[in-house]
Structure formats: structure tokens, C-alpha cells
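Might you be able to consider the sequence and fold that I enclose below?
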Amino acid sequence: MDVGDWVSTPQNWVFLVIALPMLFAGFKVVQTSNVVHAVLYLVGTLGGSAALFILLGAEFVAWTVVLVYIGAVIVLFLFGIMITRAPLGFDVTLSHPVRIRVAAAVVAFVLFALVGGAMLAEFENQTIPEAADATRTVEIGLSIFDRFVIPFEVVSVVLLAALIGGIVLARRDPAEEEEAGVVR
């Protein structure tokens, strides 16, 4: 596929409209010093990945990304930040020198080029199969809620117990802190 073919395909322009803001948000996730802002940029990145899944015709995976990652994991991040009273400002002791950041950026770019080149070499002339070969959402839902309903419910109870345990461990009563001699 040459550049002329790429430009003439409307799906590629939609991909570009989704991918560029997603790339910007992903960069801001690791670049911002405020943890809450980083989480909100992560919402944008994950929303873009859900939009790309919709573009690929994988609606179930897109809505799973929205429900699980944006709906649950991001809320859990924000909840954990608020409960632990994590500092929101810039901490100099956590920042690496410029030479280490530049070296990390170079290594990341080399790995990106290596993996991207390997993928292009392997899948250059292949196309995505038609939707007729895809597994339908109904089949996945029936599989989860028919055959695997008990393990599904057990996992949800375990996650709830982990959330409650995290709250108990992270949140201490001010009276307990004074007794333990914790200084804030």
C-alpha cells in the first residue's frame, strides 16, 4: 500500500483523528506532574483505544474497555489517591536527571521502531478478515453467564473484598494515628 492508497481510504482518516489525540493524551499521562491530571489523561487514552476497537468492529471489546478500565480502574485510581492523601505536587526526589530521561526516550523509540518494523515485515500484505468470521458478542455473553457464571461471581466477590481490604489498610482513624505516634 502506497501513500496515495492510504490517503484515499476514509477509515485511515478516522484512525488518524482518533490516534493523534490519543497519542497526545498518552504523552501527557507520563509527562504531567499532577497525579489526578495523569489519570484524566489516561481516561482520554483509554477512550481512544475503545474508539479504535469500534473502528475495527470489536464492539464488545470496546465496551469492555469503557466499563472495566474507564469505569472501574480509573475510579479505583482516583479513589486510592483520595483515600491515601497522596501528595499532588512535584516531588524532586522522584524525578530522574535529564540524561536518564533522554536515554529512556531513545530506548523506547528504538523498541518502537524494532517492533513496528517486525510487524510491518510480517503482516505487510495481509488484510483484516471480514466480520462474518468474528465471534459475536451474544456467544461471548452466553459463555460467560451460562457456563462460567460461578467463577465470574467468585471473581467479583474477591475484587470487592480486595477493595474493602485496601480501604481498611489505607485509611486510619486520626485517633489511631495519634496513639501509634504517626506524624503527618
